[in-house]
Amino acid sequence: MKKTIFNGYHMLVIVMLTALITMVVMVNLLPTKPEGKYALLDKEAAVAEIVFANPAFSDDDRKSVVEAINAVQKRYTDQGYAVLTKESCKSDVGAIVLAAVPGKPLDITQELVNAFHPANGDKQ
């Protein structure tokens, strides 16, 4: 009779333990979904749209643009969103560029563009 190190029962136990350990390790390595809400705001695109739509852009207009930006950002931060802004890199200024965010952020750029225009929806 041939003597073996493992019999059928031992092999079953080894396979089951290996599967269990593998599942536990895989669950611990899964990426976790970050907590929180994110909103993306492309201020430069919104400001460019209002500036190019109004050739007579003045310092008073600039003040209203800043107020609109602050109001839109505050509206979302009050709702618990982290507002991420898209910024341009300039050759003479160092910048940190946001390359990715978890999940799909809510894009509130159009809301800012709408905040620049009168309540009736007409463009200036």
3D structure, described in words:
Helix 2 runs parallel beside helix 4 and helix 3 packs across helix 4. The chain contains 4 helices and 3 strands; from the N terminus they run H-E-H-H-E-E-H. A 3-stranded parallel beta sheet has the order 2-1-3. The termini are far apart. The chain is mainly alpha-helical and 124 residues long.
Strand runs, count: 3
- Estimate the mean pLDDT confidence: 76
> What's the main sheet like?
3 strands, parallel
What spatial form do the alpha-carbon principal axes imply? rod-shaped
Q: Could you state the order of secondary-structure elements as H and E?
A: HEHHEEH
Radius of gyration, Cα only, in angstroms? 28 Å
Distance between the termini: 96 Å
Strand content: 5-15%
Structural class estimated from helices and strands:
mainly alpha
Widest sheet: strand ordering: 2-1-3
The DSSP helix count reads 4
Q: Portion of residues in helices?
A: 40-55%
Low-confidence stretches: 120-124
